[in-house]
Amino acid sequence: MRIILSNIGTLGDINPLIALALELKRRGHTPVMALPNVYRARLEPLGLEFHAIRPDIDPTNNVLVEMVYDIKHGTEHGLRNFLFPSLRQTYDDFLDAAAKPVRADLLLLGELNYAGPIVAGVTEIPWASYVLAPLSFFSAFDPPVLPPYPRLAKADKKLPGFGRVIKRVARFVSRRWPEPIYDLRRELGLPRGTNPLFDAKHSPSLVLALFSRVLGIEQKDWPPNTVIAGFAYYDADAGNAKLPPHLEEFVSGGAPPIVFTLGSAAVLAAGDFYEVSAKAAMELGTRAVLLIGTDPRNKP
Predict the structure, then answer these.
(1) What's the mean pLDDT in 47-74?
(2) N or C: which end of the chain has fewer CB within 10 A?
(3) The dihedral of CA 270, 272, 275, 279: what is its sign?
(4) Residue 143 has what pLDDT?
(5) Reduced to 3 states, what is the DSSP secondary structure of residue 239?
(6) Which DSSP letter does residue 222 get?
(7) How far is 145 from 162, CA to CA, in rounded Å?
């Protein structure tokens, strides 16, 4: 089968796809990675077919990262100011990936490629979706903590069933955000469909929950045909999985250390995370590794 794997996000979103693609290739399929161009150099050494889709991502753009990780408005900024302005370009690029040079047999989509379900609707190519955390299901029975409204989660513990209120609040606050998606669907002659932020991003055929049951278990309002498949691991850089010599020496030179780390984007908006981490390790009297990235602001 020719399978197009696609998402728009950071390494945390993409590495599980790489793990799946390598396993699909091992089993004789043809995986095609439809991702922002910034990942091309990481994937081509692995022998994976690559197709760039817009918008591209600048991993050094501190301003964008700090905007997206803003506690109150980060999600809105990320969608309305980064993803949705490029929605038509994403659609055009992903349509090419799905249909050229030959038609794909299956699409596997991450939730940030909002053009993906539209391409599936236009081409009628079967599609599956994947999520990386229970948060993506936004269950009323296992409600998430909304960063702008943390007290709502406390209310749910005191008032069983309050998770339904949290779910309604989230849908009300974000009700205008997906208008560009509805506009594109209308232009292409597709029905409006269900809410893209909560419902339409999940495939009706198969949803892969790529996390452990330690983090979340099936809920009554999860999408049908959801399979908790566990974590999909890829821990390398363009195939190179070796640690730097000084880090290898430290890790093997004593008791296993605690590792403090942030995602490949969040590391650019770390705040005092590493200071607090170091203090915690010192209070515990344990060895620790702090993965600080390349941002000089994170140096001790």
Answers:
(1) 86
(2) C
(3) negative
(4) 85
(5) coil
(6) S
(7) 12
pLDDT tens column, 235-266 = 898 899 999 999 999 999 999 999 999 988 88
Task: Tell me the per-residue pLDDT of 198-232, one tens digit each, with 9 for 90 and over.
Answer: 999 999 999 999 999 999 999 999 999 999 999 99
Q: φ and ψ at 38, to 5 degrees? A: -60, -20
Alpha-carbon gap, residue 277 to 297, rounded angstroms:
15
- Tokens describing residue 162: 């309050």
Phi, psi of 237 (to 5 degrees): -125, 105
- Give dist(CA 227, CA 206) in Å, integer: 7
Structure tokens at 296: 């000089």
Q: Residues 137, 224: contact at Cβ < 8 Å?
A: no
Cα–Cα distances in angstroms (integers) from residue 20 to residues 33, 80, 255, 265, in the given order: 11, 29, 32, 22
Looking up tokens 């009628």 gives: 124
* Neighbouring C-alpha atoms within 13 Å toward the C-beta of 273: 17
Burial of 181 (0-12, 13-18, 19+ CB in 10 A): buried
- Cβ neighbours, 10 Å, residue 49: 16
